[in-house]
Amino acid sequence: MLVAFPEPQCSNYDFQEKILEKTVRMELHIELLEKENKELKNQLLLTQNNYNVDLAAQNARLGEIEAQILANSLNTEKRIAEAAETITEKYTNGTKHKIIFRATLSAQSLALTAGKTAVFDTVHANFGNAYNPINGIFTPPLNGTYVFQFSMGNPTGKPGRLFLKKNAEFIDYVIAGHTSGWNIAGKTAFLYLEVGDIVYVEGTGHIAGTYGVDSIHSSFSGALMHAC
CA-CA distances (angstroms) from residue 61 to 37, 40, 66? Predict the structure, then answer.
């Protein structure tokens, strides 16, 4: 079940349009430099064919032209690198930095009352250090679209619920332990977050945790999909 939210203030179309504009400007500058290099090379050929010019002066001029050609080439490469870095940093707002976390419960079970935060205290990944395993809260370091997944598994006769919340606002929930055998339920939610928002999971009832290495019944994870 997905929850619809307002469209973010930025869009993939705006992002691509800005990159295209930057790329076109860079290509025009490169064309001008290539034209200048071509003219300098023509001068070089003309100078080489002019045998009546004093040899010392000719060599000096050749050195100047070659140095100018080299400087133009280095300048072009530098500008390309700077433009690529600027595009990445300005229009993706640093998404080259990974923001990903996944956490589970260290205990075999939790007994939670209504309004109690389920603290997933065993961290398997926390790139960007946006998730706090002490209080169970995720705090986004960048504005953007994030994806979250939360799940729980309970045995028969031990029902429980987990609620995904953003700034105390209810987003979605899962339940387990209401039918025979083990029940495992999970949900995925896409949220637009701004710096200062918080995302966490509240629980009520029985929440099964980790039984050995391969039996992880409940988890909480998330990742940045697109920064803006």
Answer: 15, 11, 9
Mode of pairing for the β-strands spanning 100-104 and 122-127: antiparallel
pLDDT in tens, 104-113: 888 877 777 8
pTM attached to this predicted model: 0.58
The CATH code for residues 100-227 is 2.60.120.40
Q: What one-character DSSP code corresponds to residue 169?
A: E
Higher pLDDT, 184 or 83: 184
- The two beta strands, 183-193 and 199-208, are unpaired
Quickly count: other Cβ atoms within 10 Å of residue 166's Cβ: 20
How does 14-31 read in b/e, with b if 16+ C-beta sit within 10 Å?
ebeeeeeebeeebeeeee
Question: What would the pLDDT profile of 143-163 be if each residue is shown by its tens digit?
Answer: 999 999 998 887 767 888 899
Element (H, E) at 20: helix 12-49
- Maximum mean pLDDT: which of 13-17, 53-57, 92-96: 53-57
User: Do residues 202 and 117 make contact, with C-beta atoms less than 8 angstroms apart?
Assistant: yes
Burial readout 101-140 (b: 16 or more C-beta within 10 A, e: otherwise): bbbbbeeebbebeeeeebbbbeeeebebebbbeeebebeb
Residue ranges per structural domain of the chain: 12-92, 100-227
Torsion, Cα of 186, 192, 198, 201 (10° steps)? -10
User: Do residues 89 and 227 touch, judged by C-beta distance below 8 A?
Assistant: no
